[in-house]
Amino acid sequence: MADFLGVKQVECHKKYLGLPTFVGRCKKDLFAFVKNKVWNKLKGWNGSIFSMAGKEVLLKAVVQAVPTYAMSCFTLSKKLIKDLHRLIADFWWGSKGGKSKMHWSKWNEMCLGKDRGGFGFRDLGCFNQALLAKQGWRLIRNPDSLVGRVLKSCYFPSRSFLTTKKGLYPSFIWRNILWDRQVINHGSRWKIGWGEIVDVVHDRWLPCPATFRVVDPPFLPNGFKVVDLHCKMPNGIVGSLDSFLVRRMLEIS
Questions:
Q1: Contact 63, 113 (CB under 8 A)
Q2: Is 176 buried (19+), middle (13-18) or exposed (0-12) by CB count in 10 A?
Q3: Max CA-CA distance within the chain?
Q4: Which of 40, 74, 197, 204 could hold 189 in an S-S bridge, CB 3.0 to 4.6 Å?
């Protein structure tokens, strides 16, 4: 086929669409291109001719957007994140004689909102986690997509994404998505229709924002679902919620 089309045949592509196709044990050199891109942007700007407002726009709109594409697929190392923060902070506070000036505020404080006394810069570590959590959310909301079907057949053919384990020989991307699943588990809850698959005790389905779960669960049969809280009609149709059963089961006064 390659001879017929007249194209060059290679054994392995190091990069595809700007991202590495193979991830080994050493991640430092693998994602060094992210740091190099940020450094090339910063060294081409003369920070002394910009106002603080100008620096803020450049850093937020240009520099902090550079690693977004890579962070949407991979977890960058803590050291790389720290180096990116240091480059941004050095440009913000300026330099003199080739040496960085005094940093008058910690980076964590600079990432706070302006209403809280910070500068509103983006914490790239948290942003990286949020981007990967978004990939997991896509698997939940679009299970019939191509990537959803491929990952499901490989790693969780008989379980849901929220309850599956890492599995044998997981890929680097799959480990990254599972690492950020805690973000989804912390901030999501079930929207109840009939509740056929929602567990009364273990799942997050109540509207109270503290835990979304039953705080002091009573003794219930194993696998007791929300649908079991509905009245059963003589013809087998599920009716409205049985208020007496709900109060008795959940001990609501």
A1: no
A2: buried
A3: 86
A4: 204
Token pair in block for residue 94: 């300026």
| pLDDT one-digit tens code per residue, 211-251 | 777 776 667 777 777 777 766 655 555 556 666 666 655 55
pLDDT tens track for 102-125? 788 888 888 888 888 888 888 888
Q: Please identify which residue in the block is written with the tokens 């989804």.
A: 184
Within 10 Å of residue 244's Cβ, how many Cβ atoms?
Answer: 9
| Helix axis angle, 146-155 to 124-141, nearest 10° | 90
Q: Which helix or strand (DSSP H or E) is residue 241 part of?
A: strand 238-241
What is the distance in angstroms between the CA of the first residue and the CA of the last residue of the chain? 74
Spatial CB neighbours of 39, under 8 Å, sequence gap ≥ 6? 87
| Alpha helices (H) in the chain, listed in sequence order | 2-5, 32-43, 52-61, 68-71, 78-93, 107-110, 124-141, 146-155, 172-179, 181-187, 243-250
pTM of the model: 0.73
H or E element that contains 238: strand 238-241
Residue 14 and residue 22 in contact, taking contact as beta carbons nearer than 8 Å: yes
User: Residue 52: is it exposed, middle or buried by C-beta count within 10 angstroms (0-12/13-18/19+)?
Assistant: exposed
